[in-house]
Specification:
- The structure is a single chain.
- The protein is of the alpha/beta class and 334 residues long.
- The chain folds into 2 domains: 73 residues, Ferritin (Up-down Bundle); 242 residues, 3-Layer(aba) Sandwich (Rossmann fold).
- Helices cover 41% and strands 15% of the residues.
- It has an 8-stranded mixed sheet.
- Helix 6 runs antiparallel to helix 10 and helix 12 runs parallel beside helix 14.
């Protein structure tokens, strides 16, 4: 795509000497060496290109296969292809990979129907900011974008939506790459990527947002992760429970009046000690207006029982609408 833009007179975003033409002109070991050198250079860039190629490395060891892949890519006119079509193709690959238990990618995949439901209930507006602190491949941000872009034809609002309204973090470099590319192909983050490769829990929120949509990772924090209690003093309670820490972080990053939809496993809602303290805070300082009980098997991880919490900051909870979509219901990705 970059080379096609150059042919139309636009400047290249790729460092000189590492463009597409340099690759397609080579064969054999020269191609392999040049490709690996190019990946290293691109991953070091401090811009959208650098994010897309975060920690990228070559997995095609045979030059003839690499040449074949490059030739297949060269045979398409990517710039003339409709943006929605490119995005849809890429997203379908992510979805298929997320449904493949052998690939292990399902841990990053939230079913599209659930994503869209959470977006519709929170109803982000085109003038608002939306964040996913554990964004995976960017499904929530993309759905929010689709929901918001039809609300106005004002060019300044649309520019704000594409380049400033959305943000996300993830700690896995490959996933950051997938998310950045996914959004870019849908016309989001064309000035700079809204995705950062960082641990959301290590930092006090730098800015408050209007809407948070998230499906935080289940289980404990990865081995070697920073002790959250040593990094932050703004959390309501100290705990090693990953889901409770994400819930606290999300509660803190909302503006007054901000809304959130968060997927959490059953045990978080009923855990004593830290869980009880956070739950009281949620009911006192937030309007926890809806809990959606999800069917077993909706996620890749087998046996996970989860709920979606919908809440608004700044108003005390009066009534909770509890929707049971689990009893006698079964959805599975198996």
């Amino acid at each position: 795509m970059d080379e096609e833009k150059v042919q139309l007179g636009f400047p290249s975003a790729i460092p000189k000497g590492h463009g597409w033409n340099e690759l397609i002109a080579l064969d054999g070991l020269d191609l392999l060496r040049k490709y690996e050198e190019t990946l290293k250079i691109l991953s070091s860039q401090d811009d959208l290109i650098g994010t897309i190629f975060t920690k990228a490395h070559n997995k095609i060891e045979q030059p003839v296969l690499l040449k074949k892949v490059i030739s297949l890519i060269e045979g398409e006119n990517w710039l003339s292809m409709d943006g929605d079509l490119k995005g849809s193709i890429y997203e379908s690959i992510l979805e298929k990979n997320g449904q493949d238990k052998k690939s292990g990618a399902g841990q990053y995949f939230t079913p599209r129907a659930l994503i869209n439901t959470m977006v519709e209930v929170t109803n982000p507006l085109i003038t608002e900011t939306v964040c996913d602190p554990a964004c995976g491949t960017g499904g929530f941000l993309l759905s929010a974008f689709d929901h918001m872009k039809t609300q106005s034809k004002d060019q300044e609002k649309l520019r704000f939506l594409r380049n400033e309204a959305l943000s996300g973090n993830d700690i896995t470099p490959l996933v950051v790459t997938l998310a950045s590319m996914n959004l870019y192909l849908h016309g989001i983050g064309t000035e700079h990527t809204p995705i950062r490769c960082q641990d959301s829990l290590e930092r006090t929120p730098a800015t408050l947002v209007d809407v948070v949509l998230a499906n935080p990772p289940f289980g404990t924090r990865p081995a070697g992760s920073t002790d959250i209690s040593a990094m932050r003093d703004d959390l309501y309670v100290t705990t090693k429970n990953n889901q409770l820490n994400f819930l606290q972080h999300i509660m803190l990053m909302l503006r007054n009046g901000g809304r959130a939809a968060v997927v959490l496993p059953d045990n978080v809602l009923f855990e004593g000690g830290a869980g009880e303290t956070i739950c009281k805070k949620l009911l006192t300082d937030f309007d926890l207006h809806t809990i959606l009980r999800l069917p077993t098997g909706i996620f890749y991880a087998q046996g996970v029982k989860a709920n979606v919490l919908f809440f608004r900051k700044g108003t005390k909870t009066k009534d909770v609408w509890y929707y049971d979509y689990r009893t006698n219901i079964k959805h599975t990705l198996a």
